[in-house]
Each structure stands twice: as C-alpha cells, then as structure tokens.
Amino acid sequence: MTTDTFLSHSHDDAPWVEGLARRLEDQCALKVWLDKWVLVPGNSWQQAMARGLEEAASCAVFIGAHTPKGWFQEEIERALDLQTRNSNFRVIPVLLPDADPSSVPGFLSLRTWVDFRNGQDSDYALHVLRQGIKGEPIGRWPVVDESKPSGMLRQYEQKIIELARFRSLGVHEEVIIEFERKILDRWLDAGGTV
C-alpha cells in the first residue's frame, strides 16, 4: 500500500477536506491521497485516481450537503467494490458539518461513519477517523476535563504562550498586545467563547 487513505469528496467540499487532510498528516502521521496534492497536470486524472484508490489501505468518503453524483459517485462505487474483493480495505463515511445522514447513499450507509457535523476541530471525530483509517477499534475515549482547554482553544492558548517568548526577547509591549488582540479576534471569529 502506498497511502493510508484515499480521500473521496465532492469538489464543493474540497477546501474543508484539504484542511482535514493536513490534520491527518500533521497530527496523526498518516499518508493521505488527496487529488489536489497528487494529480500531475497533463496526465489522465481518472487513471491516477483509480490507481490511488487501489493503492490505498482505506477510503474516507466525505459526505456534505449534496448527494454524491457523477465521478464522486463512481469513486464510492469503486471503493465499495474494492472492499468486496479485499476485506481489509475499509470504506469510511465521513459526515461534514452540512451533511444530512439520511443522504448517505445506499451501501455506504451500512458502514460505521465518522461525524464531523460539529466542525473540523472535533478531537473525538479525528480520533475515530484515525482509528478507522488504521483499522483499529475506537477504544475508550478519555473523559473530558472541563478545566483543560481542548481542540482549537489549545492552539490559540499556545500562540499566546509563544508571545511570552517575544517579551523576553525585548519586543515592544504594544506589538505583543496587538498580536494578542489578533489571536483573540480569530478565536472569537472561529466560534470560540471566552
């Protein structure tokens, strides 16, 4: 196998899927096949996609607001066909924030899915997807300690902490305060609460 998972998605959902692909590679150390990263201009994209699917250990199928159609539907059918020939190959439905579970097509709906309807920052959904890609049980999820920051909040908290290093290097206090303000504005714009 060349990659851990093939990411099958509608072009409408491409930016969202690319963001998650980065998390899968950067945080989970998984090798993903994403068309935008792999296809070579001038080559046959259909053949490259078919080969990418066959060389992957699994296929994550991202379901958004629209029912799969066209080439996306064919990818799903091909992935399900691969699974019938290789029981170790996993086809994992992934629900995006605007997905309607009743729109998951046919045989795909018979598989255990991953639910990102609460957003891409769900550490639990990422854990479930990682386990599915690796072919391992989900296992017991840690109990959430409300006193500790999680997900996106941890990222912003880390940025604030890093600014403290700049203080020790003698960066002017007004510059530090402006960066803190920008970090907090991004946090609030992303739906965070204080």
Secondary-structure element order, N to C: EHEHHEHEEHHH
Strand order of the largest sheet: 2-1-3-4-5
Q: Characterize the largest beta sheet: strand count, sense, and whether it forms a barrel.
A: 5 strands, parallel
**% residues in beta strands:** 5-15%
Determine the fraction of residues in helical runs and give it as a percent range: 40-55%
Counting helices, strands and paired strands, the structural category is alpha/beta
Task: State the domain count.
Answer: 2
Any idea what the shape is?
A: elongated
Number of helices: 7
CATH superfamily of the largest domain: Toll/interleukin-1 receptor homology (TIR) domain
Could you name the ranges where pLDDT drops below 50 across 5 or more consecutive residues?
Answer: none
Distance N to C terminus: 45 Å
* Overall radius of gyration: 20 Å
| Mean residue pLDDT | 77
- The CATH topology of the largest domain is Rossmann fold
The CATH class of the largest domain turns out to be Alpha Beta
CATH architecture of the largest domain: 3-Layer(aba) Sandwich
**What is the number of E strands?**
5
